[in-house]
């Protein structure tokens, strides 16, 4: 099993603005049920909803995630979430944990942080 530190280093290569690992809570899913095709379908629906609601920035970010998922050749992905004081990111990693396939991230306000911080 990979350690949080190893996963964070991999994610930090992709998103090099992230600070020290001590500033974040990292949750690594031990499930291998993240199917690429299902995720593409889910995020296409979310992209459509974001577009309809006028959230073009989110729609564009989801579009990038979809393209990355479509370019991934295997069928299964791994899931990691990273929570910081004003940051939340979800990352899909390759099946063998050696590459970031795609991600979505956002800044969160204090109320969002409080409600997400209480989840363990």
The fraction of residues in strands falls at 25-35%
Radius of gyration: 14 Å
Cα-to-Cα separation, first versus last residue: 20 Å
Number of strands: 5
Number of helices: 4
Mean pLDDT: 87
What low-confidence regions span 5 or more consecutive residues with pLDDT below 50? none
Largest sheet: 5 strands, antiparallel
Please, how many domains? Answer: 1
Give the overall silhouette: globular
H and E order: HEEHHEEEH
Structural class: alpha+beta
Residue share in helices?
40-55%
Describe the 3D structure.
The longest helix is centred in the middle third of the chain and has 17 residues. Strands 1, 2, 3, 4 and 5 form a five-stranded antiparallel sheet that branches. The chain has one domain. The chain contains four helices and five strands, in the order αββααβββα. Helix content is 43%, strand content 27%. The model has no long low-confidence stretch (mean pLDDT 87). The two termini are 20 Å apart. It is globular, with a radius of gyration of 14 Å. By secondary structure, it is α+β, with helices and mostly antiparallel strands. α2 packs antiparallel against α3.
Q: Helices, strands, pairings?
A:
Layout: H1 4-14, E1 24-28, E2 34-35, H2 36-52, H3 56-71, E3 76-84, E4 87-94, E5 100-107, H4 110-117
Antiparallel strand pairs: 1-3, 2-3, 3-4, 4-5
Helix pairs in contact: 2-3
Features:
5-stranded antiparallel sheet, Enoyl-CoA hydratase, alpha+beta, 5 strands
Write a short abstract of this structure:
This is Enoyl-CoA hydratase. The protein is α+β, with helices and mostly antiparallel strands and 120 residues long. It has helices spanning 4-14, 36-52, 56-71, 110-117, and strands at 24-28, 34-35, 76-84, 87-94, 100-107.
């Amino acid at each position: 099993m990979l350690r949080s530190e190893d996963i964070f280093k991999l994610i930090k290569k992709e998103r090099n603005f992230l600070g020290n690992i001590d500033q974040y809570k990292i949750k690594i899913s031990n499930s291998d049920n993240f199917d690429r095709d299902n995720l593409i379908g889910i995020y296409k629906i979310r992209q459509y909803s974001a577009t309809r609601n006028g959230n073009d920035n989110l729609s564009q970010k989801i579009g990038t995630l979809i393209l990355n998922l479509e370019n991934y050749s295997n069928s299964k992905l791994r899931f990691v979430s990273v929570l910081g004081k004003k940051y939340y990111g979800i990352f899909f990693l390759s099946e063998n944990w050696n590459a970031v396939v795609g991600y979505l991230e956002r800044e969160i306000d204090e109320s969002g942080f409080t409600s997400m911080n209480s989840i363990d």
